[in-house]
């Protein structure tokens, strides 16, 4: 009804004063305004549901990744602490932090509590992701998490105190549930903070052990003879580093800790409570409900059931990973010693609090002139850190006590299994004793030397070692399906490395004085450009050659980036990448169409001469076009074509396009073969990653590389390498000089 009509009708009421009439009118007007302002609220509720759905999808992605890689402790890869995740979680938590909307309905109140349960689940899921951060990232994310969770807790406490939560007599128990969730969130927040401090020290311990293991692996590999590294030796080397990367993964160490087990137990308890109250709530949601009934009383209206159901699903799905992490400790060898170590809950290992002790012993990080003030600040710092150390130890002991719940469950299950086996053996007519494979046992014992552990008295189980070994074999087999078949065929046709000396004769001076060092990829691209330009060669042969070069350049780039990525070579390598894109995609070389020569340019010699003259003209025009790209391309083409022309002397007119194509293919194959003799060294180099957070993914990529390039390594391992220093093998100019000026 129009406000003017309401005012008109109120004017006919003679039994109320004008003041009361105006007050009633203002109340009606305010009510109408609130109704208008609250219209978008259901859509904001959908926004909350969508944000919750994004969190669920990220958790599901981590579950799939863990199952796919057979890591049942489910490392955090998609759902991790970062600015984006914190923002999405903040949106998903709008209901419990909303102080402006009373939300008196029963379903509304359950949805508020459900959001807190969902937050408990997400925090338990995200705990191992703290291990993926460096010190600065860890600090900023912990502070951001503290602000978010403390804001949530304070707002919920305000609502409990004011009666917004638990106001209804029918749903009075919601207040108690909300208090339980507040306590759980606070405990999880403390666990996150304590874990963050522990992770910093754990990484330092693991890094020291990794460096020792890496040195041992290098000695075993005999790096002094890189030409003799076989695929089998490389496989053992990669497997050793994979063992160090997996067992020394900060996420794995965090997932195996007592704090993660405790957070998993808390997550399970919060989910059970949430499921029980949500099932009752959802069962009472009627299709023909009205927003005015006691079940719904907020402006979110019809969006509340969506939020409630989606966050319930999220709590159920999100509980899987924290629950499985409670049993990550089963990766270690089960023994009386293992059980006793877990039962000794009051023993707090040094790595839990070492970081705080280091801070306690350190000096004040800022300068103060006054000695008295310095003493006061130093004493305050020591007292504060002593309190923090005490609290930290208390939290660790409490977490160890909570972690005993799944441990005792495991012990009970194992006792039942052992008893059943013993019972079966007693009544079995015969028993078969399976012996262990001595060779396999020796391999496992060798692999055990590269296991990284925080506690030396905790031994990794044989089952876990077998899983690590099998995972390497599985990754290699997967990579073998992606082997570069065209490249392998081309390398089989090559019998030596002589083509490296042919591509650039030292008798041909450069076109300009600037010193641009040559790289492996540039002559390969330049030779391919000439091969593409030959009109009498069948397209399928050219395509096969381009496919071979394309596959080869992938590994050539790895050699260049790993072994000769100095500033002197980088500019040439960048030019080669851009030029290859131009040749492969556009059939052009430095802007010149490779298929449309002048009609008279129809023989192999004339085509080479055309490339030579074009390159020369490009350098002449350099004053007008100061392009490093064009200069490097032109110089490479000029020296290459001039070298080929000089090698044929007066017989150049007799050179057919077929012979030239064969010669170009042979040179390409020889250059690729020479470059790829460095692949074993690349694999060894890429195994060693200095950043602990990236170590596992780096070794994973190296295993992929080994699986793809095993046939290439096998083809090249028996070829006699030039008499060069091992440090000179990654550089094409050293090979070229060797073949052009062979030592007597």
UniProtKB/TrEMBL annotation:
Signal peptide: none
Record field: transmembrane: 41-60, 72-97, 109-127, 139-161, 173-200, 262-283, 303-328, 375-395, 401-420
UniProt KW keywords: Membrane, Transmembrane, Transmembrane helix
Keyword Transmembrane: yes
Superkingdom as given in the UniProt entry: Eukaryota
Name of the protein in its database record: Uncharacterized protein
The organism of origin for this protein: Artemisia annua
